[in-house]
Amino acid sequence: MSQASCDTFNQTLCEFLAAAVTPFHAVQAMASMLQEAGFQRLQEARNWQLAAGGKYYLTRNDSSLVAFVVGSEAGPGQGMRMVGAHTDSPCLMVKPQPEKVRQGYYQLGVEVYGGVLLNPWFDRDLSLAGRVSYADSSGVMQTALVNFQRPIAFIPSLAIHLDREVNQHRSVNPQTDILPILTQLQSDDKPDFRSLLAGQLRSEHTGIDVDRVLDYELSFYDTQVAAPVGLNGEFIASARLDNLLSCFTGLQALLAADGSQSSLLICNDHEEVGSLSTAGAQGPLLRSVLRRIAGGDEASYAALTDSSMMISADNAHGIHPNFADRHDDNHGPKLNAGPVIKINANQRYATNSETAGLYRLLAAVEDVPVQAFVVRTDMACGSTIGPITAGGTGIRTLDIGVPTFGMHSIRELAGSRDAWDLSRVLRRFYNHSGPLFAVAD
């Protein structure tokens, strides 16, 4: 492994994580990288004219993205090498009528999105970002992204003197305990959150015509940026590693692939809340794209899906040194010891012996170590877009991920080598010539 290449990869990863503060901003950043690499943007409502060797991408809802290459040597009928990830992360989202004034403090009501670890959200410098719908002076609805960037909010802990049992019994009521404080108000001030947003839009977008804000999808985020940590920089600490790390890793692999084989990357929104949406993995996005790539012909579509494979990349649980008993004795993935094949007999992960075996072959070629994860038999198992994609398309699927600590916390931890190693194997997967699996007689 080239340490310089790994360091460059991680530096770019940290820059991406700093920009991708919401799914909308993540898609915007990925689209920019694709355009710089010569990918042509497609519109779903228009006819597609695809050519061998062509590179294309599209977005849906501004929060999901599909990028694909029509192979210069092997067309989609010979199989599509696919990688999937998700753009969303657990967070606190602003309610439609959020203004709260308590004890002279201007606060915003928030709704919990996904399975958030709530305690780490206290005592952090928070900013706000997302998508805003607004009316211009002509009465036409427009949309724009917004990002305050600077710390504008804080959720203070209750002092231990007022809660002596906090270190033994700390629970968080999401309705009453986690309202961020924005500012202090004078007695006659009347907060208007939509006016605040309108002013921020005008500040961010030169010349924008905002008559009034209609609605929004906004989430708070930690302003502390991604960074290497550890005595020797062994780790990367950041918000949203689950699962923007996989989005970035898959994207870098696609950009580095030679384009000879038909390849695809899909990054879906809404995985953390079940994936059932127009932009989620339970929606029609991937199936629609594959049918259009196949030309709408049923036989071509069947041939494409039968000869293809999806690698669902989503972070795995590294074995925590303080809580090692939460893992099966033989399945405790370590950070910086290689990507993790995720297996579950009850199909919470979509891995089978064929897809796992192919990944192990590709990893061996790249000299990348491989780990395996199976949840303790007496514990419930999470899931990914893998089983959803496999069930919705019939495509063979592998679930894999980079081992991580603190998953769903406001700040997570991953190894500094693992994402780079995964990207190398995914690039090999994209370049793999010939059938992915043996063809039955």
UniProtKB/TrEMBL annotation:
Entry's Gene Ontology cellular component terms: cytoplasm
Which GO MF terms are attached to this record?
aminopeptidase activity; metallopeptidase activity; zinc ion binding
One example of a Gene Ontology biological process annotation: proteolysis
Entry's EC annotation:
3.4.11.-
Entry cofactors: Zn(2+)
Alphabetized, the UniProt keywords read: Aminopeptidase, Hydrolase, Metal-binding, Metalloprotease, Protease, Zinc
Give the matching InterPro entries: Peptidase_M18, Peptidase_M18_dom2
One Pfam family name is Peptidase_M18
Q: Which NCBIfam families match?
A: PRK02813.1 (NF002759)
What family does the database annotate? Belongs to the peptidase M18 family.
| Name of the protein | M18 family aminopeptidase
Q: Which organism is it from?
A: Parahaliea aestuarii
The root-end lineage is: Bacteria, Pseudomonadati, Pseudomonadota, Gammaproteobacteria, Cellvibrionales
